[in-house]
Amino acid sequence: MNTKDVIVLTGAGQLGMAIVRRIAYGNKIIVADWKIENAEAISKTLVEAGFDVIPFKVDISSRESILTLIRVAQKEGEVSMLVNAAGLSPSQSTKEHILQVDLYGTSVLLEEFGKVIKKGGTGVTISSQSGYRMPALTADEDRLLATTPTEELLQLKMLQSENIRDTLHAYQIAKRCNGKRVMAEAVKWGERGARINSISPGIIVTPLALDEFNGSRGDFYKNMFAKSPAGRPGIADEVANVAELLMSEKGAFITGSDFLIDGGATASYFYGSLQPERN
Amino acid sequence: MNTKDVIVLTGAGQLGMAIVRRIAYGNKIIVADWKIENAEAISKTLVEAGFDVIPFKVDISSRESILTLIRVAQKEGEVSMLVNAAGLSPSQSTKEHILQVDLYGTSVLLEEFGKVIKKGGTGVTISSQSGYRMPALTADEDRLLATTPTEELLQLKMLQSENIRDTLHAYQIAKRCNGKRVMAEAVKWGERGARINSISPGIIVTPLALDEFNGSRGDFYKNMFAKSPAGRPGIADEVANVAELLMSEKGAFITGSDFLIDGGATASYFYGSLQPERN
Amino acid sequence: MNTKDVIVLTGAGQLGMAIVRRIAYGNKIIVADWKIENAEAISKTLVEAGFDVIPFKVDISSRESILTLIRVAQKEGEVSMLVNAAGLSPSQSTKEHILQVDLYGTSVLLEEFGKVIKKGGTGVTISSQSGYRMPALTADEDRLLATTPTEELLQLKMLQSENIRDTLHAYQIAKRCNGKRVMAEAVKWGERGARINSISPGIIVTPLALDEFNGSRGDFYKNMFAKSPAGRPGIADEVANVAELLMSEKGAFITGSDFLIDGGATASYFYGSLQPERN
Amino acid sequence: MNTKDVIVLTGAGQLGMAIVRRIAYGNKIIVADWKIENAEAISKTLVEAGFDVIPFKVDISSRESILTLIRVAQKEGEVSMLVNAAGLSPSQSTKEHILQVDLYGTSVLLEEFGKVIKKGGTGVTISSQSGYRMPALTADEDRLLATTPTEELLQLKMLQSENIRDTLHAYQIAKRCNGKRVMAEAVKWGERGARINSISPGIIVTPLALDEFNGSRGDFYKNMFAKSPAGRPGIADEVANVAELLMSEKGAFITGSDFLIDGGATASYFYGSLQPERN
User: Fold this and answer.
1) Sheet harboring B122-126: ordered strands across?
2) What EC class does the entry list (chains A, B, C, D) (predicted)?
3) Which residue among A25, A193, A253 places its CB closest to the CB of C249?
């Protein structure tokens, strides 16, 4: 029984690791990150927990880099699962870079893994509650985000710099696009008997996030948690509970969907005490 | 240890029963339905499977009837869970009746149970993939559906007969409203430490559904399944997998959300071979 | 994606059905029973719930009948799972028949399915809490039950009629043997990358059981439930919770084990108020 | 919603942490260990993952220390769960110390938490596959281990130094005793509507275990894994899968049981290629 399936994690962080811990027993994991140090750090923790892991450097904004990742993965066995937790946050980068990684990169990743995913395989990509706070796009705009060929995506008029207010807007539209690409890709993955979904988490505690809660914007965060129904931020293992359902046979009838897990912050943003003032 | 919690199921069918089987061990179940025969039939099956069940007649389009249900439930113990699977389908009724039951009735049900739900309790209401196929409403319309006081809901201009094309439209807007009420109620349920979510299933096999698949519209259904990514209709137990997550401690960070489980039919409707012809 | 895996259920009852409902989505099920009417009744319920089922007549006390079942199953696809819920109870039969079905038949079933089970496949056989109430056998006796070639099993001296007190004793020793065969078979199934475990349930409610609780021995049962820690009989879905873990990837490190789920009745039998009087 | 339940973890290591990550969302955790540095290290990781944790120093071989732990826990809320992963291994200590901690200490821990556990609460104690490799004790010996008052346990003749061969024997008999105490305690915990079970893991990878695999006895371990059905050691998250079932409502009918999760090593030890030579 030497052959193992291969599970690819893009984006080496606590969230991706918590998901992989639920689904990768006995298989091979490739942990890929833009920073090889991140990939190595997560790999080390997983190896010390008994997993069989290869760290790898990838730039998901480059199709060539994604194709290299896939070749490396396929050398180890059939690719049965993709967990994409890579992405830039609005405070980390520029509008252009966010669109290049979070929107274009994710689209290419879903497209290329959809061409090689094992029969019966599954994928999940981490989106964000932010996508739920953006005003509705028109049906035509949604369709453009879903179906424009990946190499033409960044030429869409709606994605040109003059139409994107700021990094938060870039991030929101990237996450909206992720959801639409997941729907469109679900059709293609389905032709291989595979499934692809997304998860939109609220704020999840990580060592980095904890630094922010205890930093200068700490009161902002504490107010947000206090005013959301859950009254607290989320835990990576709670997101992993959702991913585990989506990626196992228990979720065999779920594909092309997005799952919001945010402690009710979105509900409170629209209809509770987190509502922005309206004029 | 005589005291049991009470789990209320409204809508006595295969879907509600599959959910209740996952969450009601050792507790008291009230199975409520508009037709007492339905409530009694499901109760019989559950009793024969070892559950402790009381059948009850309810009309969820009547606040008084809902309040009676709650009084009966509370006599048995604290109400810890609500599973709402009641509702009329587009082919069963008139526009007016659908709005009265599926839109107004569900809204009142969520409101009234939200006033009595046990600390840490959970609820789930069954919506439908149909809500995903409707064109986007404006942000104002969404807000009206979410926040209009229940007794004024049916007076909304957008819900008047001249603005509702047909029973399918009535059904879709009712399901859209359900999702919005769930968000708004999540804020209120959260004040009691409770959570409320919805599930939007695609076509799920039941004895009744099977009759339809084998009936005059059988080819329509067979085509739909063949062209959806899953290639088959869903199973009530697969919906129960989602409900179990939402209603257990594993879903403690999920509230105010909707979960689409449709075998990718919605994805195919928008971006696959189930697309209606576009002009 | 036409090829389906095949899941074989031997013993068409509520318990087997509850397990199959958790694991067979989208696959082919063969429901095999000594009475074809039972197989057909359970198949009907499963078909009406959306499963793809073939009823089949099998006599698990006959190797030939088991081999025919396997041939039929393999025509449909690879056999990925075995759920064995077949067996005679002490009140239903003679000592000889119980040994032939529950001891020899189960041993042959595990042996033959172990030769064809798909790589990564899993099996579970339903044993009973009764096996836990028998005095310990010697290590040599245990080894004989575990390793004697199946065709010689019923010739073991310890299994001859003069050494078996009554049908309960036959039943207990059969269940003890099941546990030992599961351990020995786990080694062989492991060579195919497959796993096999057993579950020992306490008293589980079914329509038949309910008749007994309400019959002449009703007080006996009510006393037993009242004096066990759970204070109630079990529910088939609770046994299915255990089977689901054992048969999914979540149980990938579990093989050759037995899981007792009896509401604590065994604990109470040894150390609580269900203790028989000791002289 | 200020009141949280309290979950007590005794034994601050990877296994206990993996379990706690599955069950403690939104509650208070007390991480207690003989070495406060261990408690603090695990607490730090859990805090960085979003949990609410208090590290605490405990010596489970002292009833007084256990009672202090309980008092501290109760100040924070009701104690709803106990996860006991404390214990000495055969290579770490003397026969006497192993009996004092693993046998007497665990017995007292289960006894004292059984007096305060919340209605509906659950406990799990980590035992070991080692308990399965010991020859059967007599029914009388089992009963003595199960029911002797805790303060008299270490005076049992069978536990005197001249009757214990070595530290492995001490360890095995301690684990056997754990299983019996769990059964006897299940009766008492049941009176409070609470449940208690044990898990017997095989070899689980941790940073410490990994050092051993790569050390001078590495070949011994590699041989053991290669010859067990799973072909690999276990992962803490796989044990957590079992614990999650036992401690949630899904395991409501399970109490007084032990669950062996060892990759089939025990099966192979008795009936496969891990069998010791027999003369």
Assistant:
1) B52-57, B28-33, B6-10, B79-84, B122-126, B195-201, B258-261
2) oxidoreductase
3) A25
Neighbours, chain C (3 or more CB pairs < 8 A): A, B, D
Closest alpha carbon within chain D to C264:
D255
Phi and psi, residue C202, nearest 5°: -80, -150
CA torsion through residues B131, B133, B138, B141, sign: negative
**Chain C CA closest to residue D234:** C253
pLDDT at C279: 54
pLDDT at B1: 44
Let me know if residue B156 belongs to a domain. yes
Instruction: Look at B49 and C205 and tell me if their CB atoms are within 8 Å.
Output: yes
Q: Which domain holds residue C66?
A: 6-202
Number of structural domains chain B divides into = 1
Enumerate the residues of chain C whose CB falls inside 8 A of the CB of residue B230. 26
Instruction: Bin D53: left if φ > 0, else alpha if -120 < ψ < 50, else beta.
Output: beta
Distance of CA B137 to the CA centre of its chain: 21
C1–A26: do the CB atoms touch at under 8 Å?
A: no
- Residues in chain B with CB shorter than 8 Å from the CB of A187 are 229, 264, 267-268, 271-273
Residue B262 domain-assigned (yes or no):
no
Order the strands of the A122-126 sheet from edge to edge.
Answer: A52-57, A28-33, A6-10, A79-84, A122-126, A195-201, A258-261
**C230 to chain A nearest CA, in Å?**
28
C-alpha distance from D165 to closest chain A C-alpha (Å): 33
Report the CATH number at residue C131: 3.40.50.720
Q: Using a pLDDT cut of 70, give the percent of chain C over it.
A: 99
Yes or no, beta carbons of A229 and B255 under 8 Å apart: yes
Per-residue pLDDT of C96-107, as tens digits, reads 999 999 999 999
Domain assignment present for D245: no
